[in-house]
Amino acid sequence: MVNKLKKLTETTWHGRILEPDINRWVSQFAKAPDIDTDEQLHALYLLGNFIYFGQTEIRELLKSLYRELFRTPAIHAIRRAHGDTTDWNLLETEFDKYQSTTRFLGVGNPSESGVHLLYYFRQENDLPRSLFIHSHQIFSRDTSASVPALRVRNEDIETYVFIDDLCGSGTQAAEYSQDIVEPLRKLKPDVKIHYLILFATADGLKAIRDLKQYDNVTAIYELDHSFSSLEPASRIFSHPDTPFDRAKVKATCEKYGSNLWAAHPLGYKNGQLLLGFNHNTPDNSLPIFWRETSTWRPIFKRYHKDPS
């Protein structure tokens, strides 16, 4: 386990997490003489299975998101609309027209990670600034009437693409549906609205699709139930030679997690993820990794809104 963590500090974590950081973090857990009750070993085992994506990997994923989830489906649709043409010049011309009437948006307020990703997304895909807006720029208020009315600011925009790094429970997409998507559809019934994600749980994707408000909801990576790290189907406890008892490790996480975030001791809505990014750590991941209090120092940072 020590060698694995040493390798992670040198490669996957790109030097952001070093041995002193690990020692400081793990010292907050209780040590015991046997493996079943040694909470430090439990914590180190989970840390060794934590999936971390650095800036380089995130940038590559954003290239894939644009290419595989936006550009390629659009090209295929254009090709079908033109009798399965193989005229590449025509396809490129029509795609440029389509993209010019599209706007990309991050999910969340300007300080949150979905919005933060847009900068990398625009850079990596060499896209003009004009294709990017904030959600508050979708609408404007017509004050010419006696009662101000909401209207679509730019009627020429036909497609809105929301981009996010992670969909865990689907809660944020549901909030966007109520606050933005539903009013937009009432004002412009033929609008196309897509929700494209780097990582999404199977339950989160289903929750968003069940809203029936987005035309397309898809992710680069779909996380099945084996990514719920402390459940019976967990991938990190599936091997018969796994030295740790899943229930004991879960009890350790619940013990500390209940003090760190009483409402969600195993992550937001019981997310139980072992997943983090260079730019942020999702609150769906175990709080022992990211929650910071006056008495707890996390090993990974979470940069935006503090959970309650």
Kindly describe this structure.
It is built from ten helices and eight strands. It has helices at 2-10, 19-26, 39-48, 55-81, 88-100, 113-124, 171-187, 202-211, 246-260, 287-290; strands spanning 51-53, 102-106, 139-142, 149-152, 159-167, 192-201, 216-223, 275-277. Helix 4 (55-81) crosses helix 5 (88-100) and helix 7 runs parallel beside helix 8 (202-211). The two termini are 34 Å apart. The longest helix is centred in the N-terminal third of the chain and has 27 residues, at 55-81. The chain is of the alpha/beta class and 308 residues long. The protein folds into two domains: 2-49 and 229-290, no CATH class; 55-223, Rossmann fold (3-Layer(aba) Sandwich), CATH 3.40.50. This is PRTase-CE domain-containing protein.
